[in-house]
Predict the structure.
Amino acid sequence: MGQRDPRIAVVGAGIAGLTVAAGLTRLGLASTVFEQAPQLGEVGAGLQLAPNAVRLLRRLGLGRELDRVAVRPEAIEMRRWQDGELIMVTELGDACEQRYGAPYYTVHRADLHRCLRALLPDDPVRLGRRCRSVSERPDGVELGFDTGEGHRADLVVGADGIHSVVRAALLPDRPRFSGETIYRGLVRADRLPSLAERPRVRLWLGPGRHVVCYPVSGGDWISFGATVPADDWQVESWSAEADPGELRKAYQGWHPDVVNLLAEADPVRRWALHDRDAVDRWSTDRLTLVGDAAHPMLPFFAQGANQAVEDAFALAACLARTDGGVAGALRRYEEVRAPRVAQVHQRSRGNATALHLPDGVAQRDRDAALRHRADLSHQDWLYGHDAELVGTG
Ligand code: FAD
């Protein structure tokens, strides 16, 4: 970096914000993180962490802790909704680690969040600071918080999620409702011996909806997500409780593994799925975005948090090693990230249709294509990517 390290403010202490702060610290750059919540304690359910993110998280020293709290699934399998016929299986486990130098994990969001928080000292994480205003001037950025306080920085990183206040200072767009909602929850693994016996990511695909489940928290719990199309539910909150009876009704007639899983699900939470169109610019000379603030995507490709981790490493690498100052680093960061996230974003939207086809010719063609692409080598572009190397390359 230049003669004086920039004063960096990160807005939001979710997975993206904490990874940015930890990634900057690792490269010798300090930052201050402002989080609206008075206490940290990520809610939600499970996340799939693929090798493209795990490789980077290990560089933060989280390898051993992730091994302890997360689960290494042996495979991802997709099945038909009614009879459970296997559509395809992708082997993970050791084959994945050997191929990509990092494993595939399934993890509770709270466990990952705690691991990331533990990397940072208390002082630079300021809780109970909801950012309300972002004013960029030629010589700095002024943040305003609802406590009445202000903060001046040379660079502001918006890691404040899909409704980002920092993004609003940069771009005029709004989140787009996908017409889909997802019910999420956790079931004790000992209640579901047939699903818990072998650690796998399991999906069942049916007309208009799909279910995914996998073990988390060292295998003690099974996390699930079950989509239901709706135009009457726009709530976006991990903590919005929903009626388990309605969920079960939506999956009547599905394979007994699905029915049994949902029969155990209580409480359940329901989440309206939004994204935004992909953009190729999300920075000025002093403001930039990471994670869902930059590119909120539908969760149907299980990469949102993975891409947030990639962003964090790419940004830290650009800031640490550029000779063009902050503005040059942000240009470079956007250049390397925009094509990558656009590709992942497109897959996520594409799956909103592909995973929910009605039974028929198109569904059979999709199943054949899935089978054809089952080998892990088809994921090289995704799992083999090293966002930090690309950032410095
Ligand atoms: P967030 O997690 O939204 O964090 C934003 C943070 O900023 C929060 O702490 C918030 O309190 C804070 N904040 C917001 N506004 C302000 C403000 N004004 N001032 C200060 N602080 C503020 N991704 C995967 O990789 N794998 C998966 O399997 C997967 N499954 C998913 C399933 C579902 C149902 C959904 C909805 C998403 C899934 N994702 C998955 C996506 C993933 O959850 C997100 O991409 C990821 O959590 C984004 O992290 P983030 O830190 O960018 O945003």
